[in-house]
Amino acid sequence: MKTRVLAAELIMAAAITTGCRGTSGEVMAGLKVQRGAFQVVIPAFGELQAAKSTPIVVPPESRFGRQTIGWMAPEYSSVKKDDVVIRLASTELVEFLQTEEAALAKIDLEISTKEKQLEKEKSDLTGEIAVTSIQRKLADIYAARDERIYPRNKIIEDAVDLHYQEVRERHFERKKEQLEGRETAELQLLQSRANTCRVKIGQYRDQLSKLEIRAPHDGILIIDKLWNGEKYRVGMNVWGGQKLGSLPDLSLMEAKLFVLESEASGLKENLPVSLGLDFEPGRVFAGTLVSIDTVAKPLTEESPSKFFETKASLEVTDPALMKPGVQVKASIFVEKLDGVITVPNQAISFEQGRAFLLVKRSAKVEKRQVEAGARSLTLTVITRGLEEGEEILLGHPKATE
Description:
Layout: H1 8-12, E1 16-21, E2 27-32, E3 35-50, E4 53-57, E5 67-72, E6 78-79, E7 84-89, H2 91-142, H3 152-209, E8 212-214, E9 219-220, E10 222-223, E11 237-238, E12 243-248, E13 253-260, E14 272-277, E15 280-292, E16 307-314, E17 327-344, E18 349-351, E19 354-361, E20 364-375, E21 379-384, E22 391-393
Antiparallel strand pairs: 1-2, 2-22, 3-13, 3-17, 4-12, 5-7, 5-11, 6-9, 7-8, 10-12, 13-16, 14-15, 14-17, 15-16, 17-21, 18-19, 19-20, 19-22, 20-21
């Protein structure tokens, strides 16, 4: 039933009078109307959740492949700041790290081998330069230059030999300079490759160090659900930035409520709400509807029924009773009027858009036009044309006496 009309019992408290008999012989019950409360209520169900909470997410900078949940603290367990709440495992990160470490070791070996090779070549050239320098000096010292003493051929040969030694010395010096330049370029290339590996290794190690997700503050751990309603668990694959849970602020709670689509007539924001906890049925908490989903959705894939998801703020939060996930039942008041006259719907007849009641006056029955107000499935508010204490008939005979 879409609405619950709590005022029905109050109005029906008036004793039903002796029936009035029409010309057709039918007997109709009468009802003395009284003022009372009129309520149109939409039933809802749901659970409590924190109005504010700190999300627990996989570090957004985790961009090196998927990771696996290796361990999780029990849901609803109390945690302290910096406690590990979720521990991730990543075989891909470990493989990436091992690959880069092996590449770095290979490059380091190449650098060491290259340095030794270049050092040997440089040492050989230095020796060649030293020997050539001595030979040039000796050639310069002992070169025949005096034409009065040495034959011309001897003087020419010694000059050629000296020039050869000078050219040879310059050749080895240039070769050494070229070797040093090549050495610098080759080592810089290898060092650049090594630095790239070191950067990647640092990133991978940093990611591995962040596989432990810690609590940002004290609180109770709440595990999130996937789109299909299943909660995250050990063994599931996750990605950087994915929200896995939350640490709610228990000082301020709200209710997540679900209303059946067929019962949502009149549902709107700012309606008053009355909530009861499943495990504490004797207590009632007041609240206000603060948001309503625009589209009704099934709670599960197999469910044929659709529900509007709504949220209700609470006037009072009792931390001793109110925990995230506690199941609640709620009443959403679409209409809530006090001190009004209501009549059962079957007592009203409508003709050309006007409402009529059969009012009993002494031994006669008067067909009286009235103004009808708010209406539920069982009762209608009469705003004008009927006074408290008057008696009406709960039916409409074809003829009346």
